[in-house]
Amino acid sequence: MKILFAVQSTGNGHIVRANELIKILKKRAEVDVLISGTQSSLKLKHEIKYQYKGLSFVFGKSGGIDFLKTLKLFNPITFFKEVYICPVKQYDLIINDFEPISAWASLLKRKTNCVASSHQFSLLSHKVPKGSKVNLIQSFILKYYAPVKKGYGYHFKKYDKNIFFPIIKSHLRKKEIKSGSHITIYLPAYSDKYLYNIFSKIYKKQWHIFSPYTKHKYRRGNISFFPTGYEQFEESLLSCSGVICNSGFETPSEALFLGKKLLVIPMKNQFEQKMNAIALEEIGVNVLQKLNINSINKIRKWIKKGNPIKMSYPDENKKIIDKILIDYIREKTGKKISKNLKHFINQRDTIF
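and the corresponding structure tokens:
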């Protein structure tokens, strides 16, 4: 069985999720990897067979998406050329983590065996908290950025059928959790200067800021700036007293899993993050709508009175992959999968 795992690299969560799922999938099938986009600061830990420009949202430096740079980066001729040459027909199954090239190629080439495996797919469920009604533009992006009708979603809670808990890095589960004095910050849509002008005012606290604009570690006063990367970020996260980040998906999930005090700031003009913020607030996480000089007192209050929330996220990675494969076999053969076959799939390293 040949599988194409397609992942977009706008944001680090897609990459982290792909790293975990692909290594399990490779024990069960023949897997090629496709990646598109330009905005992730983490590298995929698997060999990439196809790399496309795709469609990326560009982060700004004052808390939101830079729509002008996003539009300049998008070339419709290149996009449709990549869709045309994408070899989806060579594969039995395409697993898609909100990746537009393979999704559109599957749709236009009538390749029906393309399934979603993403946080964004969970947001299509009416049972997921969204706050006010999603407008037409937001709904259009969710449905047609990477159009896939069938799939599996990930969220902070299991709100609906086929929605799983967040995928936590396997090695992070084995690490020792400590409680240090610093607070870890990951806000990639703000410049180092912007963040320094705010957090330097709270001078009694030590801050670890991880930034895509930082190339080498340096320190200014009570703030240590780090380039984004796996090891240093995880070390800081494991030993911090709290986390401040955007209301994306991966970093808040890890903070909740580790039981760290959490403050999230939705990225401006990013409706997905607004939805996540609503879900996190329902769990009890503190949400700050804006980050500016007027936010300092609210951050100080959170430092003193904010409470950590611990979420138990069991390791469902193998269960997810096996469900995707079993559902594919069931649909392909039109037959129910027996308990014996399920056991066989779970016991063998390679089933196809």
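(Above: one complete record from the training split.) The CA atoms of residues 67 and 258 lie 34 Å apart.
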